[in-house]
Amino acid sequence: MFSGLLPVMKGKHPASEAKLPSRSYWRNYLDALSGKGIVIGIHDKEVNYATRLLRVLNHLGNELPIQFVHEGDLLPESVFTLLEAAKLTEGSISQNIDFISIRPAITAGYQSIFKGYNNKWFAALFTTFEEIILMDADAVPFVKPSSFFELEGYKKTGAYFFRDRELSEALKQDQVDFFLGMIPADGSVFEYKIDPAQLQNNFFKYNSKHVMESGVVVMNRLSHMLGLLVSLSLQYWFQSGRIMYGDKDLFWLGQLISGNSNYYFNEHAAAAIGELEGELDLCSAQLGHLSKDKKLLWTNGTLLKCKKNTWLADFFKYPALRQKCGNSMAKMKEAYSSAITISECILPASIPEINGLNKRKVTGNFNKNYNRGCGGIYYCATSKDGGEVVRFTEEEKKHYNKIVGIWNSSI
């Protein structure tokens, strides 16, 4: 560790660059960063989603370059498929895409950790862009991605994060204290100045397990690289990695622990999007992220009713789902693979609104519903207790569902 590198890293960068031997690895690395772009960690199994994402980016007129970061084993067929998807289509522009293998930069024996959530850290670290929109392959934007760089919170801080669903799930107090104890205090030897407001979110006030959703992360890496490295370390350190679910909240915790409180969270927590069930409720496998004025910015979880291939198991496990499909396996399979329709969304009442000063048993109005099948990824939101139903305009619905159609068109 005294070399300045994590054990997982060889000290080589995937991209060729001129290096000054008298300077540190990280100084050379940071000086080589340039430009803005979209970064996606990719595996062969995600190429289907990434292909559909490229179609949407074409439709939106995206002009940002895109880098697909992979472990070095991306099949030639996958590369060809993505290159074809990036080509010019009627009324759109071709996407500028590139592929980066991290294999030259990873110490032998560590390649296997470039899996699942973990690939996002390496995508964030090894892209060549200075300013990035880090995006999941199954995320779908409804606005031109370059507009994320124009968000006021990003321009002020250099990092823009989106809030997760406000769920009833909580950590133990000693788990929260574990992370709190790593955050530099005022007057520490390095004279870090942590904004006290960043210690007032639901994680610290209510022990909430889910604060950030990382399907889209907007960041200036030049000013936030140290925090990224701390986040990576937290993911692989057993003591911290076992507490958190995936990479999500380690993005902002890594920044705080590094002494950097310059980041901004979106005004609204994640919403349930789709079609209302009655007047108060909405259930979906997707979560939507809204702008300050409640326009849909992006979703995570694809634009399918269910992205999980669990229809057959669910057919036998859930009688209500089976009956809803007329006891037909074919209809069940078709229902799972059908496109969603976006007409409304629900922003549930916030955890502070529902719980007040009580943090002993925190409850939220956004909860998982296993009876919906789909591998347990369906969540139901209610607008009671001061929540809000956002009804999109006809023009908005036309735009959103046009993108749903493009994403779901046959490949």
TrEMBL record:
Pfam annotation, one family: Mannosyl_trans3
> At the top level of its lineage, which domain of life is listed?
Eukaryota
The record's InterPro entries line, in alphabetical order, gives: Alpha_mannosyltransferase (IPR022751), Nucleotide-diphossugar_trans (IPR029044)
Q: Which GO terms describe its molecular function?
A: alpha-1,3-mannosyltransferase activity
Give the UniProt subcellular location, in the record's own words.
Golgi apparatus membrane
Q: How does it sit in the membrane?
A: Single-pass type II membrane protein
Main location per UniProt?
A: Golgi
Please give a single GO biological process term from the UniProt record: protein O-linked glycosylation
Q: In which pathway does it act?
A: Protein modification; protein glycosylation
Keywords assigned by UniProt? Glycoprotein, Glycosyltransferase, Golgi apparatus, Membrane, Signal-anchor, Transferase, Transmembrane, Transmembrane helix
Any one of the GO CC terms: Golgi membrane
PANTHER family for this protein: ALPHA-1,3-MANNOSYLTRANSFERASE MNN1-RELATED (PTHR31392:SF1)
Family of the protein in this entry? Belongs to the MNN1/MNT family.
From the Swiss-Prot or TrEMBL record, give the protein name. Answer: CIC11C00000002589
What species is given as this protein's source? Answer: Sungouiella intermedia
